[in-house]
């Protein structure tokens, strides 16, 4: 897809003005994207029509050290429809409301670029765009194109509970001194976003906590690319690693057998793309994990207890800009269009019920 600023103004010629207003720049997979096409013409003397296009695509490119290039694109959906076959003559101020339902499986907007441990340069992208075209019988008069952002359906999951792992603390294969239970839980029940910082609750329970040597937590990012010819590329990176001070942890807990601490997850240094969020796509997948280790001295060796929790990370959408309308804006509003998206094989997606109680764009 074209790498254009999603907040860009429309391209205009002379006195033509065409704009797309989207109710929200961010939408969840399976929900409706709604908006309006706005048109102002000082004096239309041509036979013009309004076309609306939209598409979502996945794109991956892997450059191996030996020079081999693997590049693939997969369509999530496409839309190409005529909203109005005839635009009235003379002065025109009109609005064409539209709505369409995104496929439930739509992956999140995504951007990643980095090099793995084997020297493979990996780029992955998921992007969505919508374009309005005012055209004559022979050419395009004026266009407006904008990007919008999508959260995948996992953002609907309600956070809660905890993940726990129990580990036997043994000095040899036949002698167990006790057990350690490491639990990871939520403090804030909102999903994280790329570049954000958030605290999670850690519990370490064991009658052998007095034998703790160290505590350590880290955030792991994993990305895999599945090339259609069967080759798989993997990228793993520790984003942050923290070693809490044991003395401070013991001082903050009255019960030494049950230690509780807040652990900060910091994604601000994830400098391998604009939106490397959690995703599950046709060509690649991306995952985040909070991992915590408690290491004990159990005699002749150290024993490590461990727990891991997958984190769902959302992309970050830009702030919606205020639309600048032409002077004396008093448009004619047309009926809302319920548009049908198509898969790459041309099969339409089900759309469901259309809600028409939308706010009209005006000067108020």
UniProtKB/TrEMBL annotation:
Pfam families: Arrestin_N (PF00339). Gene3D superfamilies: 2.60.40.640. It comes from the Eukaryota. InterPro entries: Arrestin-like_C, Arrestin-like_N, Ig_E-set. This is Arrestin-like N-terminal domain-containing protein. Residues 28-150 form the Arrestin-like N-terminal domain.
């Amino acid at each position: 897809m074209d790498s254009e600023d999603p907040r860009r103004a429309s391209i205009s010629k002379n006195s033509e003005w065409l704009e797309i207003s989207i109710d929200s720049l961010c939408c969840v997979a399976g929900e409706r994207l709604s908006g309006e096409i706005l048109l102002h013409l000082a004096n239309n003397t041509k036979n013009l029509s309004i076309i609306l296009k939209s598409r979502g695509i996945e794109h991956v490119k892997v450059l191996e050290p030996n020079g081999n290039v693997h590049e693939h694109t997969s369509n999530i959906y496409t839309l190409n429809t005529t909203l109005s076959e005839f635009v009235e003559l003379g002065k025109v101020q009109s609005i064409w409301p539209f709505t369409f339902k995104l496929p439930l499986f739509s992956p999140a907007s995504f951007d990643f670029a980095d090099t793995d441990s084997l020297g493979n340069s990996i780029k992955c992208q998921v992007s969505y765009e919508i374009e309005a075209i005012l055209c004559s019988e022979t050419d395009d008069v004026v266009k407006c194109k904008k990007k919008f952002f999508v959260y995948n359906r996992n953002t609907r999951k309600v956070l809660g509970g905890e993940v726990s792992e129990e580990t036997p603390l043994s000095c040899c294969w036949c002698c167990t001194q006790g057990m350690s239970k490491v639990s990871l839980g939520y403090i804030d029940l909102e999903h994280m976003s790329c570049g954000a910082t958030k605290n999670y609750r850690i519990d370490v329970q064991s009658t052998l906590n007095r034998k703790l040597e160290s505590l350590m937590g880290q955030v792991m990012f994993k990305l895999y690319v599945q090339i259609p010819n069967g080759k798989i590329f993997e990228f793993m990176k520790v984003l942050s690693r923290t070693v809490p001070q044991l003395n401070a942890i013991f001082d903050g807990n009255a019960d030494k057998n049950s230690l509780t601490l807040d652990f900060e997850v910091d994604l601000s240094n994830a400098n391998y793309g604009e939106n490397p969020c959690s995703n599950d796509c046709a060509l690649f997948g991306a995952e985040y994990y909070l991992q915590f280790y408690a290491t004990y001295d159990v005699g002749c060796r150290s024993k490590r207890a461990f727990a891991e929790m997958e984190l769902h990370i959302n992309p970050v959408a830009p702030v919606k800009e205020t639309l600048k309308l032409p002077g004396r804006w008093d448009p004619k509003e047309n009926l809302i269009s319920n548009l049908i998206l198509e898969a790459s094989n041309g099969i339409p997606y089900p759309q469901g019920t259309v809600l028409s109680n939308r706010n009209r764009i005006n000067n108020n």
